[in-house]
Structures are given as C-alpha cells and as structure tokens.
Amino acid sequence: MNETVTSHFDTLLTLGIILVSGFFAGKVANLFKLPKVTGYITVGVILAPSVLGVLPSGFVDSSGSISNFALCIITYAIGGSLCFRRIRKLGRTILWMTFLEAELAFIMVFAGLFLLMPFIVAHTGMSLSKEFFLPLALLAGALASPTDPTAALSIKEEYKTKGEVTTSILGIAAFDDAAGIINFSIATGIALMFFGGKAQGVGETLLHPLAEILFSVLIGFVFAVGLLWVASRVKEKGSMIVLIFGALFTCFGTAKIMGLDELLATMVLGCTVVNLAKDEEKFFVSIRDYFEEIIFIVFFVLAGAHLKPMILLNSAWIVIAFVLLRTIGKVTGVYLGGKISNAPVKVKKYTAFGLIPQGGIVVGLALLVRGDPRFDAISALLLNIILGTTVFHEFIGPLLTEIALKKAGEIDKEKEKDITETGCL
Hints:
The protein is an all-alpha fold and about 425 residues long. The protein is about 75% helix and about 0% strand. The chain has 20 helices and no strands.
C-alpha cells in the first residue's frame, strides 16, 4: 500500500476512533448525570498523544483545518441563537454584563499575575527576567476576557434549555469576543515597548481592533444577505445544506485571508440569518439535527487531545492563579452588570458560571503571539499557560454551566430524564 493511501487510511481511522470513542464517552457521561461534552473532553485527554498515544501526534498537531470546520458550524449556530426578538428584553443587561465581566477579568488577571510573578518565579525556578513580568501579565490578562460559547451551546442543544440565563450566557459569550480582540490589540501595542518595538499611538491602537471588528461584521452580513437571496430560490433540503456550508466556508476563508476575525464573521452570518429570514428554522434545523453532534464530538475530543501534562506541571502555579483571578473577574463583572441594569435575580446569580469556558479565539490569539519573533522571550510560556488554562476551563466549564442552568430551572426535566434513562450502553 503506497504512502498516500496509508496516510488517508490513517486519517479516516483516527476520525473513526474519535467519533466512536466520543459517542460512547458521551453516553457514559450521561449515566453519571454529566453533560456529554465532559465525556468528549475526558476521552480526548485519555487518548491524547501525551497520555495513551492512541491519537497520532501528527494528526492532533495538524488538526487546525478540522477545528476550523467545526468552529464554522459552531459559531454559525451561536449566531443563530441570538434572535433579537428573544434577547431584546435583556439587551441592556447583556451589554453591561459583557463590558464589566470582560474588563474585570482582564484587570484581575493582569494585576494579579504581575503582583504574584516574583513569588512564582522565585519558588518554581522558572527562567523569566523581571523586565518581562509586566508584558506577560498584560497579554495574559487580555486573553482572559473572551469566553468560549461552544460548551454553553452544546448544553443548550443537549438539554433543550431555554430562558433568561441561557439567553444571557450565549449573548455575553458571543459579544465578549469583540471585547477580547480590543483588549488584546491594546495589550500587544503596549507590550511591544518592552521588546524594543515601536509602540503604537493610542489612536492607532484603538482604531485597528475597531476596524477589524467592523469589517468582520460587514463580511458576515454580506454573506448572510447573499445566502438569504439565493436560498429564497431553492426549496430542496439537500441544496439548502450545500448553500449553508458553502456560504460559511467562503465567509470564514475570506475573513481569514483579509486578516479579520473569522469566528466573528461566521457568527454574524448566523445572527443575520436568524433575524432576517422569514422561515429561519430551515437554515438551522438540518444542521442541528444531522451535523451538530458530530461537530461537537470532533471539536471537544481534539480539544482534550491537545493536553500536554508537562505544560500543566511547569506552569501550574500561573495556571491556577489565572483560573482563580479570571473567575473572580467574571463573577464580579456579571453581578455588578446585573445590579446596574436591574437584571432578574437568577440572571445575576447564575449567568457567570456559564462564562467560565475558554478556548477557540484565545488559543488563536496566543498562537499569533507565538508566531511573532519580537515576543520570543515570553511567547512559549504564554502559549503554555493558555493551553493549560483552556484544557481546565473546557473540562470544568460545561459542568458549571449545567449546574447553573439546573439551578435557574432552565433545563427541561423531561429531556434530562430521557437522556439519563437512554444513556445505557
């Protein structure tokens, strides 16, 4: 068998292992009354190249295209959950909570790591010069702002949750990516001063991320209008799926080539469609019914497979500090935002626990730093910290989200009962 055929066979075999193991792991998780996504991540960790080694390291390391495919569908679905008719009542609350939880997470992680770094370095023997404490803390703080909404979406679809807390979690998680991009751009501009680079002016530092967000939104809107126009002349379900996937992949690729935020663009595409389409269900039901579980399994198993135990060990204290400080910032920001906007009690009380997951755009931004030679002194450590915190957040996040939605009374009790009863192997 030639090398090309073997390579394709290995790829298909690996995908088969991911799907089958993820499916059964999700069932086992349900037996223990845990969300399926926790099972997906757990089996990904177990099969990781650095643990049992069942998944080839080459496949995991080069799985960016597969992850991008999954993120296209996931962000489209997240956008589709932002129906303005449903979130209008909570609009002011979502805006206040988004601003405060994103910025307080940034400030808490930045200030906390900067103050703790001398003690961590002294007691762990980490090789990091004092002059790099501030830029490392600054960049880490900026990466604390965004939330990964994928876990919340998977819980929503699994248990058919609905209500004010569900809407708030998905709305805030979608919007705080924009806040994260702004924070990251400002932090990068300031951090350059510590590496002999020319710091950008305040105007340029603010203008660049705002322009990126604006054009990302524009790209998503344009592709959504195009999709709606073509889809109005098509009635076959199979053709609709082709059109949706075609629009998503082209939108994602166009934004990427232009140096824009691909995930924001595809999310705006979904948001525009759900708010402008006369029959919005036909744009989402086929993907939700036939593709979503496959996408979630592949995405979360691969997320778990990126775990490298040495990363967690070498930067364990920074990872722990990051997690605690970020959580404090998120919880405080949500509570204050709820107080200012007079949010319902359960929204103030439970929304923050659905904003713990971290991934997607955060890892992408950390990789941007890693690819810039000007940040060589801290980029490897920063990436290690973000990978370590991402794995932890993606594992514990779904559990906290499920608990919060149960406490808020937004999980369908009959659906939860059905999932548990049919979860046997």
